[in-house]
Each structure stands twice: as structure tokens, then as C-alpha cells.
Fold this sequence. Notes:
Elements: E1 19-25, E2 32-38, E3 49-52, E4 59-62, E5 69-70
Antiparallel strand pairs: 1-2, 3-4, 4-5
Amino acid sequence: MHYKPKRSPENSAKPSATILPFSYRCPDCGWDVETLVSEVSSSQRDAYQSTVCPNCQQLHSVNPTNGQILVEDGLGDPW
């Protein structure tokens, strides 16, 4: 006799998030950076996602919907 475990809601397959390419200009070094971000739903239009610039190694918060970058310290150059 083969035992088949019951599938609970926690074990059921969840749909994977769609990952999309996104590019932005780093506020610290001025490089154009290409990265991948999660797809934005209509309720997340104003949400920022964190990404690390491969050149300056700084963490930046970017909004993939409108391309805005949250500059927290005010030191970013206006490229």
C-alpha cells in the first residue's frame, strides 16, 4: 500500500511572481543599471523596491512603475 500525503493549503503550489527587467540611473554614480524586479500590481503602483547598484554597491529604492528613485540622504547627484 502506497501512502499519499494529503495536500494542505500550505503545501499547495503557489503561483510564482513574474519578474520583469527594469533599468534606472544610479543617483550616486550615474550609471545606467539594469536589474530584475517583481511585477507591480495596480495596488502597488506607489511601492518602491530595493536594488543594489553593481558599481557603487549602494542599496537604492526604485519605483518600477514611474522610475523614481528614493534618495534618502540627499547626496545623490541629479544625473
